[in-house]
Amino acid sequence: MSAPTLALLATLPLLVSGAECHGKPSPTALPNIQPVDFSAPRPNKTVTNGMLQYVGTGDDEIAIMHLWGSAYERGFAQGSLRTDDLRAFYNRGFAYFEESFEEAIKSAVPWIPKAIALWVAGVGLGAALDLTAKATSAYTGDWFVDEIRGISDATGVSTQLITRVHMIGELTKGQCSMFGAWGNATPSGSLLQLRALDWDIDGPFQDYPQVTIYHASVAGEGRTFANVGWAGWIGLITGMSASALGISEIGVSFPDPSFGSESRVGIPWTYILRDILQWDDSLSASRQRLETANRTCNLILGVGDGKLAAAATTSGGEAPFNSVQYSSSVANFMNDTTLRPVNATWHSPLPQLVYHGMDWLCPGFSKPLHDQLKQQWGNLTPESAISHVMSIVQTGDLLVALYDLTPGKLQLYTSNARGTGETGAVKAYDRQYVRIDLSQAFAIPKPVTPVALN
């Protein structure tokens, strides 16, 4: 790639400042009254350094992938356990991205900024993603490269294609929502955190739901954590760790001037979020990481630390959940008393609760999210959030994850959009949720002898 082309990528404008998003939930949205599926995971098969389980029933079944060993060994184990699914995910994903970018030139595709679509049209999607990988390579840990190499060796999918699929997040935007509630906002006082992913339900993603659990078993490979996403996805957009940390994220398409500038040269945001869960053990450690990183695009991030909830409730200590105004220029941490943007009409504060609906400047969703959270304040549980928050606000069309970050009792509640050939509600927030006891899952020992169990 030429130096001028790399320079163009580094300065490419993505967003339109001074505007607001115009979407809003339907006034006839109904509560999600489906009971949570509490069934236990079912074993499927094991290989060296890997074990595959399934949880949930029927069309709401989700794979749980347990991985041990070095980064390369983890990649090889995952590729060995779901070889055909990984091949399909990467090939279908890239083909769908190509089709979507072509469509974005002719008409609006909400998750693709117009400036990016025009640039990709000139250089080609493959070249654009390769250039993005090159621009971020100096800031990418070896563990990502090694894990991709392991997946490639097990599946036969090229490292170039796998890397390209993982770079797509740097070129697109998603409208998502988050909240963190603790203290008197929840019955137990523990931290409850939401990550709702509103992105694209016409692609292949919902056909391959997977919770990938990385077990800390080798020195130098970090901590135990769960990556909530899809088969073969090693970047992190949703997840929580054995250190009682959880992460959330919102793409910002409607910023204000306080975001400053963006850059395409730095650490990919899906990688820095994984680094938080893989390497950090506290909210303060994640703050240090984010403040000192070579950051890229405009986002709102969320980091929760369940260990802080008890102290915050009893002694007025540090808020256990912070949202982060994130760009190349800034990393501003916000709690319930410093929440931004400030707007008395559609983004007013709630005690012991931090929230953002769909974007930075998005009255149509921020106000309904505020109203539902206020209505449930004091009684915010996973069940009440499922029934009366995400379904009424209509956020989390592709994937929803709720983290109960009570130390020692870590629980994940998750749902996915309807996959190909499946029945029931289309969007994740209207479908049945599955509860996964991560405290138990994190403690599963590495299998001694690989054996097929199905």
Task: Describe the protein.
The protein starts with a helix and ends in a 12-residue tail after the last helix. A 10-stranded mixed beta sheet has the order 1-2-3-6-7-8-9-10-11-12. A 6-stranded antiparallel beta sheet has the order 13-4-5-14-15-16. 54% of the residues are buried. It has 454 residues and is α+β, with helices and mostly antiparallel strands. It folds into 2 domains: 3-11 and 71-170; 176-204 and 247-268 and 282-442, Penicillin V Acylase, Chain A, CATH 3.60.60.10. Helices cover 33% and strands 20% of the residues. Mean pLDDT is 90; it is low at 1-18. Helix 2 (71-81) runs parallel beside helix 6 and helix 3 (83-106) crosses helix 4. Strand 1 and strand 2 form a beta hairpin.
The rounded Rg comes to 20 Å
CATH architecture of the largest domain: 4-Layer Sandwich
H/E series: HEEEHHHHHHEEEEEEHHEHEEEHHEEEH
Mean pLDDT equals 90
* Shape verdict: globular
Content of β-strand: 15-25%
- Distance separating the two termini: 48 Å
User: And the CATH topology of the largest domain?
Assistant: Penicillin V Acylase, Chain A
Largest sheet: 10 strands, mixed
Uncertain spans, ≥5 residues at pLDDT below 50? Answer: 1-18
Q: Strand tally, please? A: 16
**Fraction of residues in helices?**
25-40%
For CATH, the homologous superfamily of the largest domain is named as Penicillin V Acylase, Chain A
- The structural domain count equals 2
The first-level CATH class of the largest domain is given as Alpha Beta
Order of the strands making up the biggest sheet = 1-2-3-6-7-8-9-10-11-12
Secondary-structure content class: alpha+beta
